[in-house]
């Protein structure tokens, strides 16, 4: 793994070559944040199988990001016949019903004083793209920036989402969102006066709930979460999500901002996520 560190935090980042056993067809390989450690509080993020040290690549842990190659209901986005492309991972095929990476993209990796940059490009069929992923650590703020360029002569349309895995406090979490946010009635989560909470404690990795959080229109995501070993944790985006999912099980909680990316030929789009860490409580 690669490391980004300062006097209080250390960020573990997967190496797209060395750590290939932890990677799969779901998440972008370059810039995959596996864990953030506080010098006093220890590891700060979890995952669906936490504390399993070798979770399934589909589940993962930490702060992965994904360029979807299919919609959630299975419609192809970056597939042409029996070949697909997961941007930031590689060319895809199906094997015994599973989607697998058959030709990984290659990364140029550049460490610098406060971070690390991953750059790749790949062409599969009509899709030709360049992707740059930059991670930077400024004090107690971790910033993840993506820059995507459509290098082809045809439009590139796909979906991207972040899937951060936040730690639970005694099996629960509180998420502060804008008071105008709404959530459909559901068996898993409650939203009152801008605070989302679990209705019950989930048990293990197979017990959980997923739902759609409706944020105020035309506003980037900005929220605050409780943490078992920090005063709080802030999570924010520079873009306005097209939709926002919330999901949790007995080991973790995630708020997932989505973007629909529709890039014209030669168009470039850039966005970032920011994680700001409160002070350790123990």
Shape: globular
In percent, how helical is the residue content?
under 10%
Give the beta-strand count.
Answer: 23
Q: Per CATH, what is the topology? A: Beta-galactosidase, Chain A, domain 5
Quote the distance from N terminus to C terminus. Answer: 27 Å
In DSSP terms (H or I, runs of 4 or more residues), the helix count works out at 0
Give the uncertain stretches in residue-range form. Answer: none
Reported for the largest beta sheet, the result is: 10 strands, antiparallel
Content-based structural category: mainly beta
Strand content: over 45%
Our Rg estimate from Cα atoms comes to 18 Å
Strand order of the largest sheet: 10-11-12-13-23-20-19-15-17-16
Chain-averaged pLDDT: 96
Helix-strand pattern, N to C?
A: EEEEEEEEEEEEEEEEEEEEEEE
Question: Could you explain the architecture of this structure?
Answer:
The protein has 282 residues and is mainly β. The protein has one domain: Beta-galactosidase, Chain A, domain 5 (Distorted Sandwich), CATH 2.70.98. The chain has strands at residues 2-5, 9-13, 33-38, 42-43, 65-68, 79-80, 83-86, 90-95, 98-104, 107-112, 115-124, 127-138, 141-150, 156-162, 174-176, 189-192, 195-198, 208-212, 222-225, 233-237, 243-249, 253-263, 268-277. Strands 10-11-12-13-23-20-19-15-17-16 form a ten-stranded antiparallel β-sheet, with no helix packed on it. It has a five-stranded antiparallel β-sheet with strand order 5-14-22-21-18, with no helix packed on it. Strands 1-2-3-4 form a four-stranded antiparallel β-sheet, with no helix packed on it.
